[in-house]
Target: SEC10/PgrA surface exclusion domain-containing protein
Amino acid sequence: MKSKNSKLMYVSAAVLAAGAVASVNTQNAHAAEVQKQAEKDTDSKLNAQVADKIAENKQTKIDLTKSQNDLQAAKSDKAQAETNKSTVENTLSTKKEAVQETEDKLDQAKTDLNSAQTKAKELHGQYDSSYENNVEKAQSEKNVADQEVKDTSNQVQNLQNQQSDLNNKKASAENKIESTQKNLDSINESAKNLSNQVKQLQPKYDQAQKEYDIIKNELENKQNSAQKATEQLKQNEQELANSEKSLNDLQNKSNQNVQTINKTQKQLDENKSNLSNKQDELPVKQAQVTDLNKQLSDVNVKLTNAINKQTIAKAALDRAKDSVANTMILPDSYVKAAKKWDKISREDYKHFDDKQFTKEMHAASLEGWKINQYKSNAKDKEHMVDLNNLTPEEQLEINEFAINLINQARVQLGNKPWTLNRSAMKFAADVANNYRKNNTHTIWSGHDVKSIKEAARENGLNDSDNLYENLGQENFGMQLSNDPLALVKYDPYGKMYSSGYDHSEDDYRNHRDDMDSLKHHIYDDLKGMFFNFKMDEWLHAGNMLSFYYTPQENNNNEGQTTFYGAISLDMQSSSPDTIIIHYISVPDRIEGTYVKDPTKFNVNDNIPLTTTDISKLQQDYVQAQNEVNNYSSQKSSLDSQVKTLNDQIKQDQDTISTLTSKINKLSSDLLAAQNSQKDVATQITATTNQINDLKSKQLALIQAKNATTSELATYKQEHANVITNYTNLKSSLEKLNKDIQENKANQESTENTLEKYKSELESINKELNEINTKLANLKTKLSNAEVKQANAKERLAKAQADYENYVNTHKDLIDQISASDKVIAEKQEAVKEAQISYDKATKEYKDAKSQVTKLADKINNLDQSIANSKATIKTLSNRIDNNKKVQASYIKLQARKDFDVQINKALDAVDKPESKQAVKSNHNETVLPQTGANDKLSVFAALAGLSLASLGLGSLAGNKKRKRN
Model:
C-alpha cells in the first residue's frame, strides 16, 4: 500500500511540474511582477518576526538565569533563617527560667523590705516626738518675733528717711517761693515803666498820623502807578525771555531730531544685517548639535560602570565627614511640629492651639536635647583664646562654627541657609563693644536696645529698634551636664552645670580658655535655644530657624529670605562669670528696609563656609574618580560642546527675536522722529513771530516805567519829613505795645509758678505731719516686739534643754531607729536591683520570642519567593522551548526557499521551447501530448517533480514556479 501511494505521489508531482513548465508562455508578465513584489514583502515581514523571537529568546535566557540565581539565594536565605530560628528557640527555655528566677528574687526582696518596714514602724511608735515638736514650735515663734522686730525697725528707718527727704523738700520749696516773689515784683515794675512810655508817645503819634493822612491817597496812587508800570515791563521781559528760551529749546530739539533720525536709520540697517547673518548661522549649529549628541550617547554607555564605583567611594567619604563634624540634628517630630504650627500661625492664627503646640514642641525638644552632644577636638583643646580679645582668625573660626550649626538646622526645615558676611561680623563686634562699654547686665535687663541701635546706625542699617539680635548666655568655666538622669531637670539658662575648666587661676581671672571649650559653649547655647523644653519657649528657635516667630520675614516667602549672619562675644564687670553671645542676622528682604547705606554694609562681602577635609578618604575618592575621568573627560568635552552650541543656538534664537523686536521698534522710532521734526519746524516759525511782537512793545513799556518812577520819587522828596516822622513813631509805638504784651504774659506765668510752689509747700507740710504721727506709733510697736522677742528666746532655750535631756535618756531607742532606717534603705536598694534584673530578663525573653516570630515570617516570605521563582523559571523555560520550535520551522522554510532557487536556476538554463507543426517534426515521439515543449524540459520537470515529492514539497514547488512566472 505504501509503495502504491509513493508511485502515485511521484506521478502527480511529475504531472504538476510538466504542467507548470508547459504553461510558461501562457502567463501574464504584469501579474508575474506583482506576485514577485508580494513575495518580497512577505519574506521581509517573516524575517522581522523571526528576529524579534531571537531577541526575545536572548532576553528570556537572561531573565531565566536571574530567576535561577534568585531561587538559589532565597533557598540559602531560608536555610540561614531556619538555622537562626532554631538557635533562638533553643534559648527560649533558658530565658524563661531566668525570668522566673529573677521574679522569685524580686518577690523575696519585697517580702524582706516589708518585714524591715514593719519593725521600723514599731520602733518609731515608741519614740516621743513631742520634745522635738516643742523645739520646732519654739524656734518658729522666735523666728516670727525676730522677723517682726526686723520688719518694724525697717519701717521706722524708712519713715525717718522720708522725714529727712520732706524736710529737704520743704526748705527747697520755701527758697523757690522767695525767689519767684522777687521776680514777680521786678516784672510789675517793668509794666509801670512801659505804660508811662506809651502815654508819652501816643500824642506825638496821633499828630504825625493827621499830617500823613493829608498826603496818603496821592502817595498811594503814585506808588500804584509806578508798581503797575514796573510789573507790565517785567511781564513783557519775562514773556520775551520765555519765548527766546522756547525758541532755543525748539532749535535744540530740531538738532536732536536730526541726530535721532540719522542714528536710528543707522541702527536699523545694522540690526537688519545682523538678523540676516544669525538666520544663516542657525541651521549649521543645529546640525553640529545632532552629530555631537550621537557621539555623547556612545560615551554615556561606557561611563555608567565607572560612575558606580566612584559613587561608592564618595559615599564612604561623605559618611566619614558626617562622623567627624559637630552636628545639630532636628528630630523628625521637631521638624513635623515646627512646620505644622508655623503653617497654622501664618494662615489662621485664631486656630492656633498654644497648649497643643507646647506639648508637641516640648516632647520633640526633649528628644532633640538627648540626641545632640558636642564632640571635642584635641587640636582645639591646645589652642588658648582670650575671650575679651579674640584675634580676627579666631573670630572667623567661631563664626564659621556657629553659622554652620545654625544652617544645619535651617536646611532640615527646608529653609535657606544664613550667609556669613564680613559686614555682619563687624556689626556683631560693634554690638558686643557697646554692651561692654555700657556694662549692660543682661541677666536682668535682657537686650541692650540702645547699644544695638547705635551699632546699626554706625553700620548703615535701620536703627529704629532691635531688629537683629538673639542673645545667649553661658557660664564661664562650666559646661552643661550630659548625664541622662539630669536631662529631665535641664535648665537652658544655667542650673545644670558641671565644672569644665582645666586651666590656671590666672587664666580664669583673665577670662582665657581653650577653643574647644569656647565652641562647646556656643554649641550648648544654640542647643538650649533650639530645644528649650524646660521653659517651653521657642521664640528664639523660631526666629533663628524661620518658623513660628519670623518678624524679619514676609509670610509669603518665609524661610527663603537671605540673612547675613554673624556672632560675637563679650564679658562684663557686671556679670564677670557670664559669657554673652550675640547672634546677629540682617535680612535682605526689601531694598532699603534694613540696609540703609550699602557703602557701610556690603551685602556682597560674603565668606563661603568650608567643610572638614579628610585626606585619606579624599585620596581614595580621587583614585576612584580617576577611573571615571577616562570617560568623563570625553563626556565633559562633548557636554561642553553641546551646551556651548545649545547656548549659542538659544542665544542666536534670542538674538533673532531681540533683533526682530529692535527692528520693529527702530522703525517705529524713526517714523516718530520724522513726525516730531515736522511739528518742531511749525513751532519754531510761530515762536519767532511771537518774539518779534514782544520786542516791539518793549520800548514803550520802559518809557512808562521811568516816567511813573520819577514822578513817585519827586513826590516823596517833597513830603519826606512827614513820611519819615510818621513811620518812625508808628514803629516805636508798635514795639512798646508788643513789650507790654510780653511783660503781661511773663507776669501771668510767674504768678502761676508762685501759686504752684505755695501749693507744693502746703502738701509737704501736710505729709510731714502724717509721717511724724506714724513714726511715733511705730516706735511704740517696735518696743512691744522686742519684748515678745525676748520671751520667745527664753521658751526656745527651755524646749531645747528638755529635748536634749530626752535624747540622753533614750539613746538606745534612737540608735535602734537609726539602724532600722539603714536596713530599710538597704532593702529598698535590693528591691531596686532585683527589679532591674527582672525587667532585663523579661525584655530578653520577649525580644527572643519576637525574633522567632520575625524569623518565621521571613521563612514564610522566602517560601513564597521560592514558589514565585519556580513559577517564573517554568514560564521562561516554556517560552524558550516555544521559540526554539519557531526557529526550527523557520530553518525548514529557508531550506525550501533555497531549493526553489536551485530549481528556478535550472529552469532558466534550459533552452526556450520552439513551436513546430506535427506534420513537419521528425521527433514527435519525444514530445508530450498537447504541448510544444522540448523533451529535455519535460524530462527535467518530471525529475524535479519526483524530487519535490520525495521532500513532501510538491505543491509548494508548483506555487513557487507560478509566482516566478
